[in-house]
Amino acid sequence: MNDPTPRSEFLAGVRAELPLLLGVVPFGMIFGVLGLAAGLPGWAVVLSSSLIFGGSSQVVFAQLWGAVTPPAVTVTTVGVVNLRHLLYSAAVAEYLRGLSWRWKLLLAYLLTDEAFAAALPRLRDGPATPHRHYFLLGTGSTLWSGWQLSTLAGVLLGAAIPAGWSLDFSIALTFIALLVLAVHRRSDAGAALVAAAVVLPAMALPHKLGLLVAAAAGIGAGLALRRFDRKTP
Asked: Half-sphere exposure of residue 24, counting CA atoms within 13 Å on the CB side?
């Protein structure tokens, strides 16, 4: 069988990402509305979706802007929220090692939550073909386009979106979908279960430290359970 072409890998990435847009689109619309409510001009709300390109960090940015938080604190907080992308980069680095720095720069920009979740199974478990990075390009480009358009829709529609739609629940649905996509091995399932068991009692900790404690517990459990994963031939 011939190796997949760049076009076929890209289109496969697009198809893998499309189902996740069901959660991304309402999330982007919510951010558009939140950004306007926080006092950001419409153009700044849309521009932030290109410059920051991270849903949770953009929501934090809008909230801090509305609270007239000092710029240094705002930039630092947004940067901390986006630190999770370093974990994504570490997870895919070995599969993209041979690419030029231009490719790495582009893919690093596109490597956000949903793009990572859709592309990792292909990079990790699929054949090591020379064009597999186009799959990540497909997932990232699809996510980027959907996020920009949904943010713009939120800005244009604004208060016209009925409150009864409860679009904010789509944020939770998006991350639930990411979790389901990420669980492929016993260690993945164990990490998710341990983190879920720890997070509720840990929520009593101050400064949202419960989330970090639960994440650390899940990572530790996943590493400990890796020896029980089935070996792929």
From this structure: 25
Residue 232 predicted with pLDDT over 60? no
Distance CA(87)–CA(182), nearest Å, equals 14
Q: Token pair of 55, please?
A: 């849903």
- Rg of the chain on CA atoms, in Å: 19
Largest distance between two CA atoms of the chain:
59
Helix (H, G, I), strand (E, B) or coil at 29: helix
| CB of 71 closer than 8 Å to CB of 80 | no
Write out pLDDT tens, residues 53-70: 988 888 888 888 988 888
pLDDT recorded at residue 177: 65
At 1 the pLDDT is 52
CB 133 within 8 A of CB 103: yes
**Which tokens go with 69?**
């938080």
Cα 158 from Cα 32, distance rounded (Å): 7
In the chain, where the domains are located: 6-167, 183-233
Q: How far apart are CA 197 and CA 190, in angstroms?
A: 11
DSSP assignment of 139-187: HHHHHHHHHHHHHHHHHHHGGGS-GGG-TTHHHHHHHHHHHHHH--SHH
